[in-house]
Structures are given as structure tokens and as C-alpha cells.
Design brief:
The chain has one domain: Porin (Beta Barrel), CATH 2.40.160. The chain has helices at 2-8, 11-20, and strands spanning 38-44, 48-55, 61-70, 75-85, 90-91, 96-111, 114-129, 134-140, 143-147, 151-153, 157-163. Helices cover 10% and strands 54% of the residues. By secondary structure, it is mainly β. The protein starts with a helix and ends in an 8-residue tail after the last strand.
Length: 171
């Protein structure tokens, strides 16, 4: 498993480099929280940190995932969230929007002869920046590990910074 993690490790910097060289599309930008938008960047999940992705499946719900390293030994971790996008708290024509979302999802940690399974809730605060299509997210993620040992974690926080490379809805 560690060889798989080592093989995937160069992907994150290359993906971020690719995002930096994309042409600017700010003139065609629509709100980040639009159906069909896809964002990619860095973030943390319930058990790990790494590549963060978010897809707005509708105007009121989205799918979020993080794949990266788990623990301190280079194990692989994944988490996925189904989020209900709540109405915007603050938004104006200046290009800054404050939104929030709630949801839940599974978390998995894989290592050499090791498996961890868990679930978590999510309450997130989203700072969406226009005309540059970026979101900065802070999340409260209480969770429970159910395998190999039951462990409750009520004090878990996560964060994401994602760029929406196309800046417009793909619907």
C-alpha cells in the first residue's frame, strides 16, 4: 500500500501546477455554487489530507471528496461527503459570497495490513470569491471510527482551498 501512496504522491503537485497555468476565465465566471461546477485544490478530510474535489450536482446539493495521506506512515485515506448547500448568508456584487453547507459521509484509511473505517458529519462555512472562482472552506467534522476500534471524535475540523478551473457552470 505504501508503494501505491508513493506512486500517487507526485500527482498532487502536478495537478496544482496544471491549475496555475490554466487561462483566466474570470469574464465568463458565474457563482461558484452553481450546478455543474467542479472545483479542485487542497483540503483535509476526516482521517487525512490531500487533493480536495467538489462537484455541484444541483443548486442545493454537492459531492465533496478528499484523497490523500492518512496518519504519519504514508497510508492512503479517502473521504466523501454528500452536502446540502444552504442559502447564501451574505452575497453582494463585490465578488465575495458567504455560504454554508451541511452533510455527512464515509472515511477510509488504508495502509500495510491496516484498515480504518469511519463516518462523519459536516457543517461548513464557505467563502466564495468572484471573479476568480475560488472557495475557501472551514468545516466542523465530528466523526466516529467504527473499525478496527470504535472511537468517537467530537473535535475534528477541516479546511479546503479549491479553484474552479472553468469558472462557469458546465450544465
Amino acid at each position: 500500500m505504501q508503494s501505491l501512496v508513493r506512486a500517487l504522491a507526485p500527482i498532487v503537485p502536478l495537478a496544482l501546477l496544471g491549475l496555475l497555468v490554466l487561462p483566466s476565465v474570470a469574464q465568463a465566471a458565474s457563482p461558484v455554487r452553481s450546478q455543474g461546477n467542479f472545483g479542485i485544490g487542497l483540503g483535509s478530510g476526516y482521517l487525512h489530507s490531500g487533493l480536495s474535489m467538489k462537484y455541484f450536482a444541483g443548486d442545493s446539493h454537492s459531492l465533496q471528496g478528499v484523497i490523500g495521506t492518512y496518519g504519519y506512515d504514508g497510508s492512503l485515506g479517502f473521504s466523501g461527503d454528500y452536502l446540502f448547500e444552504m442559502p447564501t448568508i451574505v452575497g453582494d456584487n463585490s465578488g465575495l459570497e458567504l455560504g454554508w453547507a451541511i452533510g455527512a459521509g464515509p472515511a477510509i484509511g488504508l495502509g500495510d495490513n491496516f484498515l480504518a473505517l469511519g463516518a462523519h458529519g459536516v457543517v461548513g462555512l464557505e467563502f466564495n470569491i468572484q471573479p476568480v472562482p475560488v472557495d475557501i472552506v472551514l468545516e466542523y467534522k465530528p466523526g466516529i471510527v467504527v473499525y478496527p476500534n470504535v472511537q468517537v471524535d467530537l473535535y475534528n475540523f477541516a479546511g479546503h482551498v479549491r479553484f474552479y478551473p472553468f469558472g462557469w457552470s458546465a450544465k
